[in-house]
């Protein structure tokens, strides 16, 4: 077809206006964009795409509201904006809606959040200490910008010191964990949550916070926790440290409760249902608890491998590592069976 195509405005997506060119390994603006064309970008555009459009647009000015790029590119562009100001080859502006396309550190996202007033979507990947510290309440010494950054993320992910992916443990005290619960972010699916503080605390009724399905209560700081697992979805609950934890199990979720090596009796687990399991030897170091070794009473549990369940919730077992009888209270349970090793299953 011959003839002249007259136009002064173009509206399209960034991928159509400035597609990736494999030959030049760059985004290249469409031939339809010429000096002075009014270009409106629909949806998200990277900074490189906006630059490609602007380069051939001459006196024209691309119109856009949504930017999608890495944290580093967004920060570099903003700092150029601050230094040189518009106009110029800078595209981040406060009212833009920004999507950060790769997980960023707490520090980078707190900084970006300080100059973006529009919508902001992002994930965080940082070392455990940085994430945990950021979840600290301001009244406990936290930084308001950092708390906003971690609470506003879609996901927080524990990575190593080189920011490389790993299956990590995010250890929080009760204050920090409460802020995780209260925010919008979830823990990455390959990470484990641990509540570990020098404290006695009621964590309340939990909802979903992400993670790999395991929650660790207590640890080397010997905190003592009360918690209702609510709708959290955790199916493995590790009780650690010397604190006497009080846990209410979930309905409709088959759970395994694992007692750590430091547990010395006194923890209480309620709300159990048939099929839930209690592993009394998380360290796999004690002599096995076989059916044949069930004692006549709790007072008779005094040798390796012996155990007794009283039919009213109290499970007594002999810790052959520390050479003492210990007990855990399984509130409401009337019958258990042993797997002939170290795990008891609720029968009724």
Describe this structure in words.
The protein is 18% helix and 28% strand. Strand 25 and strand 26 (343-346) form a beta hairpin. The chain has a domain at 169-346. The N and C termini lie far apart (82 Å). The longest helix has 14 residues, at 71-84. The strands form 6 sheets. Strands 11-13-15-17-19-21-26-25 form an 8-stranded mixed sheet. The chain has 7 helices and 26 strands. It has 348 residues and is an alpha/beta fold. The protein has helices spanning 14-17, 47-57, 71-84, 106-115, 128-134, 144-152, 174-182; strands at 9-13, 20-21, 26-27, 38-42, 44-45, 66-69, 97-100, 120-121, 124-126, 155-158, 169-172, 186-187, 192-195, 200-205, 214-217, 224-228, 236-239, 246-248, 256-259, 268-270, 277-279, 307-309, 314-319, 324-330, 336-338, 343-346.
């Amino acid at each position: 077809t011959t003839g002249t195509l007259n136009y002064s405005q173009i509206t399209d997506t960034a991928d159509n206006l400035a597609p990736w060119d494999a030959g030049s390994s760059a985004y290249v603006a469409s031939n339809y964009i010429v000096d002075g064309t009014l270009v409106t970008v629909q949806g998200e555009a990277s900074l490189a795409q906006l630059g490609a459009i602007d380069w051939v647009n001459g006196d024209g000015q691309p119109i856009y509201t949504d930017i999608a790029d890495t944290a580093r590119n967004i920060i570099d562009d903003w700092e150029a904006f601050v230094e040189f100001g518009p106009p110029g080859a800078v595209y981040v502006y406060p009212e833009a809606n920004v999507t950060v396309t790769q997980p960023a550190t707490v520090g980078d996202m707190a900084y970006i959040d300080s100059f973006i007033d529009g919508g902001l979507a992002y994930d965080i990947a940082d070392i455990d200490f940085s994430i945990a510290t950021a979840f600290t309440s301001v009244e406990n010494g936290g930084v308001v910008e950092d708390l906003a950054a971690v609470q506003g993320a879609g996901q927080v992910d524990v990575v190593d010191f080189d920011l490389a992916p790993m299956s990590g443990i995010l250890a929080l005290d009760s204050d920090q964990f409460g802020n995780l619960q209260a925010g919008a972010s979830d823990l990455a699916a390959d990470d484990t949550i641990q509540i570990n503080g020098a404290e006695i605390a009621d964590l309340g009724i939990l909802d979903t916070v992400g993670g790999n399905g395991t929650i660790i209560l207590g640890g080397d700081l010997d905190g003592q926790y009360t918690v209702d697992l609510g709708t959290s979805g955790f199916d493995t609950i590790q009780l650690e440290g010397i604190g006497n934890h009080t846990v209410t199990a979930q309905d409709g979720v088959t759970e395994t409760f694992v007692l750590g090596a430091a547990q010395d009796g006194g923890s209480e687990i309620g709300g159990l249902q048939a099929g839930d399991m209690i592993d009394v030897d998380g360290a796999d170091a004690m002599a096995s608890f076989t059916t044949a070794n069930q004692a006549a009473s709790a007072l008779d549990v005094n040798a390796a491998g012996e155990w007794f369940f009283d039919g009213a919730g109290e499970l007594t077992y002999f810790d052959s590592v520390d050479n003492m009888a210990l007990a855990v209270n399984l509130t409401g349970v009337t019958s258990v069976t042993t797997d002939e090793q170290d795990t008891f299953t609720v029968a009724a």
